[in-house]
């Protein structure tokens, strides 16, 4: 019998996944860049509205324009996410990602060259389609190429790259914001072409997903790709186990039959409907934590709250977002998904109410109150980054049964972009003080505090604890238990493992 593949041999596969995670960087960079763009004088002068009554700077952006400029991208991302599954199936994971980069590059050219707002907005929609494709295909490619034991970490790693992208966008915005001409915003936007080119170029040379090749009947190609991912010879017996796993899984998929979107909502003993709806809801609730209020409108919000250095605060919040994602890699497996989601939501809820109360009680001139406000915004971001940020993606990717997984995951991802759009769209109307706006200012945090309360309720009643379980065990868990009972099952499993009495996991009824 051939010896199992060593860690050293698996290294190329791990590196391929790390490189692919760079797609998360594109996603994050795009999220982070618009917040600073719309707060820049040069951007406002080019695309904003002139008002002689304004004293400081005579250009502004009305809420109606701001909401379209920011949220329209999510419309493209929503479509791109839904398209990602058929695109990746027909042209392959690698070329699907390359196509996403190409579409993004076209959009970047449009936005960078735009003299009118119309072209800028059209560019953002198209860019959204590119990012939607990339964001849908990368986790799929990663989970098909990564060794089993690091799949969860790989998904969390993808989220980490999103946070790095947001941070770098804020750093670039801060570096160029004072340029007197349009290059202040054109550079941060234009630079994305370089990132897209790096990803596309790299993907071109990387191996294709062996699973996709098997699905397309190219077993020889699949073995070659597997050999590259595992530093082995394509004919070597060392690859037999992995290769058999892939072909077995494919045959199992065929046996289960092609499933439709309607199958994802069947209310059977495997609780398929509950699982699909949990994936869709968890992504919606992730957006309803209000986190993108900070990443989309943070710079403008802090500016209105009286901060002259609002760009610096955005860099601080995005650094905290990036750094506090790191502990989640460990905590997700140690503490578990449910507990982290519940307590994450509780902490965010408390912080948001505090921010709202301070914002309402203290004027913009009260600097110590404003500092406390920023501190609580930072704690809130840290609570998000170490819990709901990565876990919403981890849960979405692991709770669905094989035969509906691709469809259920793409609907969950689309739900993320749908809520992302809705929140991005309504927020300026809620926060701003123009005609017809609700003028909530910091009071908007009362809304996010309330939605976070519901996030905690949702986590408590609907999220199953799936740490340490194989995907088959997750199936059994749903068949035999409620979400709250799943905690006992996870604890039992953990203590079994700790006493080295692992045995086979058979959940009790
Ligand atoms: C969310 C994004 C958000 C980012 C912040 C992601 O998981 O889906 O909408 O901007 O986290 O780090």
Automatic annotation (TrEMBL):
Membrane topology per record: Multi-pass membrane protein
Give TM segment ranges. Answer: 59-83, 95-114, 120-141, 153-172, 184-206, 276-299, 311-333, 340-360, 372-396, 408-431, 443-463
* Compartments, record wording: Membrane
For this protein, what is any one GO molecular function term?
A: carbohydrate:proton symporter activity
Alphabetic keyword roster: Membrane, Transmembrane, Transmembrane helix, Transport
What sequence ranges are listed for the domain Major facilitator superfamily (MFS) profile?
Answer: 16-467
InterPro entries, sorted: MFS_dom (IPR020846), MFS_sugar_transport-like (IPR005828), MFS_Sugar_Transporters (IPR050360), MFS_trans_sf (IPR036259), Sugar/inositol_transpt (IPR003663), Sugar_transporter_CS (IPR005829)
One GO location term (cellular component): membrane
Keyword Transmembrane helix recorded: yes
Under the heading Pfam families, the entry gives: Sugar_tr
CDD domains documented for this protein: MFS_HXT
Main localization, broad class: membrane
Family per similarity comment:
Belongs to the major facilitator superfamily. Sugar transporter (TC 2.A.1.1) family.
Q: What is this protein called?
A: Major facilitator superfamily (MFS) profile domain-containing protein
Natural source organism: Physocladia obscura
